[in-house]
Amino acid sequence: MWETFATMAERMADWAESGFAVREEQDLDRYTYAVAGTLVLLLSDLWAWHDGTRSSRTLGVGYGRALQSVNILLDRREDAGRGVDFWPDGWQAQDMVRYAAQDLVLADAYLAGLPDGPARTFCAEPLARAHRALALRPWAPTPRKPTPR
């Protein structure tokens, strides 16, 4: 558990030092892993310690990334107001929707693999909210940062 927490803190510090610069999809992969994937790994460690609940760590990372990418999609205006942009250069809303949808497949498998109990209960509603957000919101083209030349 301590190792996971230390890794999460170290990666977040790296992102803060870089100014949260996301230029390519690989940067987004690293960011969503650092802020959400490692958090789910920590939760997986806590559940195993608390009541023996076992979960797929690989699918757990997908679960975390899915929730984070939906948050990035929903919070774009607010993030821009704070001077940060977590979208890869040149991406439109449909690109972020596609990215989030890929990880939602993993997130669904993660939830399906959890036994009934506190871990499953904890994870079910945030995942349902993420699915509702992608299904109900009309995703119009969004302003994008310019593609570097």
Ranges where pLDDT stays below 50 over 5 or more residues in a row are none
Helix and strand pattern: HHHHHH
Overall body shape: globular
SSE class: mainly alpha
Query: Number of helix segments?
Result: 6
**Beta content:** under 5%
Assign a percent range to the helix content.
over 70%
State the assembly state of the protein chains.
single chain
Average residue-wise pLDDT: 85
Q: Using the coordinates shown, work out and report the CATH topology.
A: Farnesyl Diphosphate Synthase
**Whole-number tally of structural domains:** 1
Q: In CATH, what is the class?
A: Mainly Alpha
N/C terminus separation:
43 Å
Would you mind describing this structure in some detail?
The protein has 149 residues and is mainly α. It has a single domain, classed as Farnesyl Diphosphate Synthase (Orthogonal Bundle), CATH 1.10.600.10. It is built from 6 helices and no strands. The longest helix has 27 residues, at 25-51. It is globular, with a radius of gyration of 16 Å. The model has no long low-confidence stretch (mean pLDDT 85).
Short description:
By secondary structure, this protein is an all-alpha fold. Helices cover 72% and strands 0% of the residues.
Topology (elements, then pairings):
Elements: H1 2-17, H2 25-51, H3 57-74, H4 76-81, H5 93-113, H6 118-136
Helix pairs in contact: 1-2, 2-3, 3-5, 3-6, 5-6
Protein name: Squalene/phytoene synthase family protein
Organism: Streptomyces noboritoensis
Pfam families: SQS_PSY (PF00494)
